[in-house]
Amino acid sequence: MQFAHFSHVWAKPGLTPHQRYEELWRELQLCDDLGFDYSFCVEHHCTPEESWMSSPSLYAVGAGARTKRLRVGSMGYIVPLYHPLRLAEEIAIVDQMTGGRMELGLVPGITASYFRPFGLDYGQRKSPTLEFVSYLRAAYGKQPFSYHGADFHTDEAALSVLPVQKPHPPLWMMSRDPQTLEFCAQNRINPGYFLVYPRADAAPRYRTFIDDWAKAGWSDKPKIAYCTVIYVDETDEKALDVARQRAARAYEGFLDPAKPGETFEDRVKAHAKKFIGRGEPGASAIMANLFDPEFLMANDLVFIGSPETVARKLRAAAKDGLFNVFFGEFNFADLPEADLMRSIRLFGEKVIPALRDYEPF
Predict the structure, then answer these.
(1) DSSP of 60-84, one letter per residue?
(2) Which of 302, 291, 294 shows the shortest CA–CA distance to 195?
(3) N or C: which terminus of the chain carries fewer CB neighbours within 10 A?
């Protein structure tokens, strides 16, 4: 198995953005020292109550400048928000600045709220995201290059900088959509999913993906990621005392902003109503109960406990959910930095060695 530090770069009470970024770099420096494989961030826009990360390139360059071996990247660039030529240029520069340590996640964008401020159509996001893979390969080929597809058109452009990694940094695309997973298998793209999609539902889709990957002729195993909140402490009791309630508020930024007089509980109830009767009942149930600590713990949707407990639960989850890369969101809610850093250290010193040689598939 492999292991990543994953961050929404949540807004944190009492911290300015600068202070939050400085805390982030301390996290990644520790991860680098402890042997983590990756660090990834999101790209979210115009959500001050939630994420303070709208620029994966700046994240990757900042992280790369402060670490020595950690592979850093986006999970992912919201492709439809960029001109493809501009994004291809930026990716190449980031890969050069990080010395070939960039990992490249591409996503269509999870919510319409990221598109509205840019005046772009959320409904037209998937096609350009998939086509950008072909565009990228053309852009990093013989110079100058031209490309003419359904969404993108470029004539006789010569990139000033090409990436270190050939033909491009490793590609990732978080998805549970069967058609997208088929595309990923054909194009050697590593996929993954978040805690909001049940592992039992994901496993059959990813078994098909693994078969499609082999049929495509790739000699190596794919990397399949799973992302959720994690907290490790010396004992189960201490871990639960520190993190159980906080984990249930990790995704508070997903709730609608509070109206005058509205409590957190009121906002949670309003959020849950949105998912009643929707398709994908398993995913809907998770979303409706995302702020219920008992539900999260009973279903092992977050991992909280001693190193032994977390390693055991992660091993079982990887087997059931068919993932071989764990994306841990270590910094959530108002978790104090001392607890945060102890959690990362215990994970790196005790959980990673316990699972490093485990192969879920």
Answers:
(1) HHHHHHH-SS-EEEEEEEEGGGS-H
(2) 302
(3) C
**10-residue averages of pLDDT along the chain (361 residues):** 98 95 98 98 93 97 98 96 98 98 96 92 94 98 98 97 98 96 98 96 97 97 98 98 97 86 87 76 91 97 98 98 98 98 98 98 96
Short-list 198, 289, 287, 296, CA closest to 243: 296
Give the amino acid at 349. Answer: E
- Angle CA(177)–CA(148)–CA(180) in degrees, nearest 5? 5
Q: Residue for token digits 């993190």?
A: 243
CATH pick for 2-251+300-355 out of 3.10.290.10, 3.20.20.30, 3.40.140.10, 3.20.20.370:
3.20.20.30
Instruction: For 193-229, give one letter per residue: b (16+ CB within 10 A) or e.
Output: bbbbbbbeebbebbeebbebbeeeeeeeebbbbbbbb
Q: Do the strands 71-78 and 38-41 form a parallel or antiparallel pair, or are they unpaired?
A: parallel
Q: Give the DSSP H/E element, type plus range, for residue 36.
A: none
> Alpha-carbon distance 245 to 294, whole Å?
9
The token pair at 2 is 């492999």
**Pair of tokens at residue 266:** 């009121």
Question: Who's near 101: CB < 8 A, 6+ residues apart?
Answer: 64, 69, 70, 71, 72, 95
Q: Residue 287 is encoded by which pair of tokens?
A: 């979303």
Taking alpha carbons only, the member of 231, 169, 221, 224 closest to residue 194 is: 224
Sign of CA dihedral 152, 218, 144, 146: negative
SS3 for 268-334 is HHHHHHCCCCCCCHHHHHHHHCCCCHHHHHHCCCCEEECHHHHHHHHHHHHHHHCCCEEEEECCCCC
Output Rg (C-alpha) for the chain, integer angstroms: 20
CA distance 36 to 354: 13
The sign of the torsion formed by the CA atoms of 290, 125, 122, 208 equals negative
Instruction: Identify the residue whose tokens are 């202070």.
Output: 19
